Hints:
The structure holds two protein chains of two kinds. By secondary structure, chain A is an all-alpha fold. Chain A has helices at about 1-5, 20-45, 70-75, 80-110, 115-130, 135-145, 150-155, 165-175, 180-185, 190-200, 205-220, 225-230, 235-250, 255-275, 275-289. Chain A has 15 helices and no strands. In chain B, strands 1-2 form a two-stranded antiparallel ribbon. Chain B starts with a helix and ends with a helix. At the A-B interface, α2, α4, α5, α6 and α12 of A face α2, α4, α5, α6 and α7 of B.
Amino acid sequence: xxxxxxxxxxxxxxxxxxxxxxxxxxxxxxxxxxxxxxxxxxxxxxxxxxxxxxxxxxxxxxxxxxxxxxxxxxxxxxxxxxxxxxxxxxxxxxxxxxxxxxxxxxxxxxxxxxxxxxxxxxxxxxxxxxxxxxxxxxxxxxxxxxxxxxxxxxxxxxxxxxxxxxxxxxxxxxxxxxxxxxxxxxxxxxxxxxxxxxxxxxxxxxxxxxxxxxxxxxxxxxxxxxxxxxxxxxxxxxxxxxxxxxxxxxxxxxxxxxxxxxxxxxxxxxxxxxxxxxxxxxxxxxxxx
Amino acid sequence: xxxxxxxxxxxxxxxxxxxxxxxxxxxxxxxxxxxxxxxxxxxxxxxxxxxxxxxxxxxxxxxxxxxxxxxxxxxxxxxxxxxxxxxxxxxxxxxxxxxxxxxxxxxxxxxxxxxxxxxxxxxxxxxxxxxxxxxxxxxxxxxxxxxxxxxxxxxxxxxxxxxxxxxxxxxxxxxxxxxxxxxxxxxxxxxxxxxxxxxxxxxxxxxxxxxxxxxxxxxxxxxxxxxxxxxxxxxxxxxxxxxxxxxxxxxxxxxxxxxxxxxxxxxxxxxxxxxxxxxxxxxxxxxxxxxxxxxxxxxxxxxxxxxxxxxxxxxx
Lengths: 289, 316
């Protein structure tokens, strides 16, 4: 309790002697530790030698003879480099097209006056309500008709336009003082030049927030690529991991499953730990929209 | 209407306004053209994958194939009534309701607790926030792979540590009475840290002088929560409830990896049912009918929540 007392030392004077906030804090610490247990198990099991046997598999105390065998096995069984490549292509492809579409549309809503602005704005708003995941059936048949079944382009296409991104960029562009644009106008800058040299460079924080949200969500996407992709060599990480898990589960190779899972989540986890603040503020913005 | 106009008005007056109207329309359109060009790329994709998809669901729901290779046949509302009469669908709806309520309430409650406890920023609270946020970042498929072992009968993490204190070891994912609650644990674990962020943001809006005044008046922690913090967090609550509901309908990756809807349909959720109809039974008609019903329910719910929000804001 003294540690918690210490942590509350800089709190408001009146609360220093209150017990409820401290109990809440204590409970949160315990739950946060419980929240980490699956990750802890993943780490411990990855390094556990197969000689420990199935009975020690659930032991959270790390083995004294750690081994990299599980990582090597997972690497050999699953085609993880290929899955990484596919997921990277999907996320980058979606993001690059999105950058173009949301910049153009965001600028139109932020700075231009045009006939039908409000109804078109509501059309965009509708995308937020019509959850894309639920439209998998009609979108799959469209992807088949377009001849994009079993292609990475087919996985990417439904996400090329983003209402959320458009709103985010509209907000960012609206915050830029018009005086800057007026100066460029006098110099004879075209619409595209104004966007390219004034609006885009001044909105980089919004672009990076959008990139974090977009990449995280498509990195983790499962159901849609599962439906579109058929060839094993076009699988993204999530689909690859689910197939890998199924295979290894049959042989009770839990250490290998832990290693495979670790390899799949490591890139995002490491990026998060480096850019924690940026991640968290991006996720908050995504909700406030 | 335009034909009646010249008769009612003197010719000399009627001609210029019509011309004006035309020129005004064309100049307005010309002035709007750059905006339309900028919106075009987005609108093309929205038309294909959002509005078009809605339209195709509406149409597909009206047609049926007797066998995968038979020609399409117009069946009207038969697909809808067939889906509504399918015990697997109604079961999935009930499961989804239990799942939605049973995941939303605990994860939102925990999120509020976490946010209240970690509202002040220092090294310790930042570390705890990060720990609680980690599950948000990992794919649901990866979370499922970890929980596959956690729930493993006898040797799994849960049985190894907690099972010793129970007289009979439950089969977490194999028992139809327990399986749905088992997958709910994963969802709570994964989402609580996400909702925590919104409460943390909401707490910043609580005016400090009001809190100080409450302190000076001797309000206890419960009173401060009940009369100052919770009313201030109302919009956050409403927003998080909408997100939690959407998550309950759109996140089914764990069902795929862990249970495939089983045992005996105990963990079948609506989206998984849609997937099964479309991909496993090749029944696009039924899948579309189920999609339509789900979309209608979700949109009604969203509209309702927006209305309550609007009423609350305009109210006293």
